User: What shape does this take?
Amino acid sequence: MGTLVEAPVVTLAEAVNAGFEKFGLVLGWAPGRDGNLTPTFARSAEQASELAFGPSAVYNLARYVRDHTPCAVVAKPCDTRSLVQMMSENMLDRDKVFVIGLRCPGVADMKKVRERYGWGARVEQVGSEWRVNGEAVDKADLLDARCRACVRREPVIADVIVGEPVTPPAEPERATGLPESMAERGAFWEAEFAKCIRCYACRNACPLCYCQDVCVAQSRQPHWLTDEATPAENWMWQMIRMAHLAGRCTQCGECNRACPVDIRLDLLTQELADTSRELFNYEAGLDPEQKPPFLTYDKERDEWPII
Amino acid sequence: MPLIADYKKTQAKEKPTIVAFLCNWCSYAGADAAGTSRFKQPPDVRIIRVPCSGRLDWLIIAKTFKEGADGVLVSGCHPGDCHYTEGNYYARRKLEALKRYLPLFGIEEGRFEYTWVSASEGKRWADVVTEFTEQIHKLGVRKAG
Amino acid sequence: MANHLNTSAPEPEGGSMAESGELTFLAAEKLVAWLEALAAREGALLVPSHAAGTFVPWQGGEPDLTKITMTSAKGVVLPQHETFLSYAYDSDGKVTVTPRIADTPTTVFGVRLCDTRGVRCIDQTFGENGPSGADPNYVARRDATTFIALACTAADVDAACFCATFGPPDDYGVADLVVHPVEGGYVLRPLSAKGLAAAALAPVEQGVPVPEPPLPAQGAAIEIEGIEQKLIEHFDDMELWSDITEKCLSCGACSFVCPTCYCFTIADEERGSDHGDRVRCWDSCGFACYTKEASGHNPRSSNAQRFRNRVNHKFAYYAELYSLESCVGCGRCIRACPAGVDIRDMVAAVLHRGPVASPGSPAEVKA
Assistant: This one.
C-alpha cells in the first residue's frame, strides 16, 4: 500500500544542506550525551553537519514540525505518514516543510537495548550490522516491534530521498500479547491501566494530538474524567485518545515508546488500524487528499447487521 | 475483570444495568408509541434521550460502561430518514467501529448494540428491548476478578 | 517527625533484639521468612515490582530487588491521588464534611537511598516544620510508614544515576532501616525506633561476626558548583532556555517518576447528585495548564518558561530555602523522558553559559 514517491536520491549530508539552505532550520537527530541520537534543531551549518541516522533515531520528528514550520525535517517512512496525515487535516502546509525522506531498515527498541546492556549503551549501524558498545548484535532481536509490523520501508512523501532501497519484510509481525478470552482481557487491561500515572507522555509524543494544553482529559467543562489514576479512569483516558485518533492514527508507535511504564498501547493502535481497514478499506497517512473515514459516509456501502 | 469505576456498587447488583440512548425524533417517539400501545416489554432499560444518534460519540458509551452499565443500546432513525438528514450516517460509522473496538477490552460482543427504530415502530421497539434485555441478562452483570 | 514504635509487633523468633545502630546479619535464604514476619504485622507490606513500575503489596516469594523502580517510593506518603475529605448533602440541604486521613501502618521494603533522600526533600515542605505547618494527610502517612532501604551495589547503578552529586554514600536519608547486600545475605542497620522494630522481626544469625558492609554504590557526580547563582543570573536568558528545552514534550513523566517532585492539584469531584470528595492528585509544572489562571492568563505559557521553573526549583529555589537541592540524582527523569531530555545537560549548559548581555536581568536590576 502507498505509492512509491518520485524524488531525487541524495546523501543525508546533501539533503540536510538543501533543507538548511531552504529554510534555515533542520529537524533531525544528532548524537547526545551517551552517543545515541537525540532530537536536534539545527540552526547553523555546523549543527546541521552533525545530523545523522541510525538505529537509535527512534523519535518521530513530525511531532515537532507543527510548531517549527517553515522547516526541513528528517523523516523515517513512519514519520512521513504522520506528515501526510497532518496535511490531510490542514495542520501542515506542504510548501512549508522540506521532507528528507529516509529509506529505513528499522530502528532499535531502545528500552530493550537499555534493559539488556544498561543505560548509556550506545547502539549504531556499521555497514549492514548493528553494534552495541562496539560489539555486533543480533539486529532481528533488537528491532523495534513497530518496525517488525511495518509494511513499507520507503517514505510516502519526500522532497529528497536518502538511503539504499530496503526490501520490506515478507510477513509483517503483528503486535501480540492480547489474551484470547474476554475475562482474561478484562484482567489484562486492569493490570495495564493500574500502571498508568497519567503523565500524558502518550498524548504529548503523538504528532496528531494537537489539543495538548486544552485536552479534554484535563478540562472541568466538559468533565469526562478525574485526575485520579485508577484503572477505570485511566481506561477512560485511553478511550478518549483512541476515540479521537480513530481513522487518523498512523501507528507511528510513539505513544507506545513514550510510555514510562510500558503500557501496551501498541495493541490499542493496532486495533484502531484494523477496524479502519476492515470497515472502510482506509489507511491513514498515505494520501494528503484522503478524507478521514469518520468525517464522511457512504450511503450505499455502509451497511452492517443490527439487532 | 472489565474496567468499572466502582466495583463495590456493581458487585452488589442483582440485575444488570441497561442503558439506551434514543434519538428524539424517531426512536424516542417509537418507544413512546410502544408504551401507549401497551406492548409488553421488560422494564430494565433506562432511556436517555439525545437529539440525534449522530450526537453520540465513543466517549458517551465508554463512560456509560465505565460507570457500571452492563449493556448499552443506541437507537436512531433509519438511515435515509434522519431528522437532520445525515446525522445517522455519521453515527452508523462511529457506532459500528466502536462495536468492533470494545471487545478488545473484554467488553463482550453483545453488550453494545445499535439499531434503527422509527416513530411508528412501537412493536419493533418492544421487540428490540425484549431481545436486548434477554441478551444482557444472559451475559450477566460485568464481574470483577 | 515523630517515630512510632510499633508496640503491636510480635515477639521476635530466634534472633535477639538489636540495639539502636547495632548491625545484624540475615542469611539470604531467610529473607522471605523476614518478609512473612513483616507482613504479619498490622497494615501493609510493599515491595518493588518492575512489572508495575512501582511498589506493590507483597504476594509472597522473593521480591525482584534488581535495579531501581521506574517510579519512586514517594507515592507511599504522597499518593498519586487521595481524598482529603468527603461531603454529603442531606434532604434538607445540610452538608456534612468528613475529613479523610489515611494512617494505615505501611512497611516499604526495598526502597533505595535516592527514595529516602527524596522523602527528606518532601518533608521540608509538607512536614511539621514546613512553611505552612504540617500537612495532616502527609504527616499521618509519613508517621505510619517504615522505610526499609536496600543499599545499592555496583550492579544497581547505571549511567543515568548521578546521586553522588548530592551527598556521600552513607547519607541514608529518612530510612528507618538500611539493608546492605553482602556475601551470603544482608547486613541490617537500624536507624530509628521503627527500624529497630522491623529488624527485630528478622531471623538473624546469632553468634556470627557481622561483616562490615561496603559503602553503598553511587552514580557518578556531576558538577553543580555555582549552579544556584548561575541560574539566577540567567533567569531572563530565554535564548538559552528555549534552546536547551526545545525537544521537551511538556508531559509530566519526569515530575511523576521523580522522588522529590510534590506539586499537586485539588479538585472537588461529584460522586453522585448529593455527595462527593475533595481529591488531591499529582500535577506537573511541565503541563501547559499548570499555571493557567481562571482569567485565562498563563504566566508560563511557553515550554521554555516551564522547564526553566523546573530546573530553578530543583537547583536554586529549594537550595536557597532549605540548603538542599530538590534532586537526588536517581536518574528516573532521564530514563522516563520520551524525548531524550537529560537534566544533567541542562545544568551543564547553564554552568557553561557566558555572561548575559541582555539588560533587565535580575542581577543587573539588583545592582
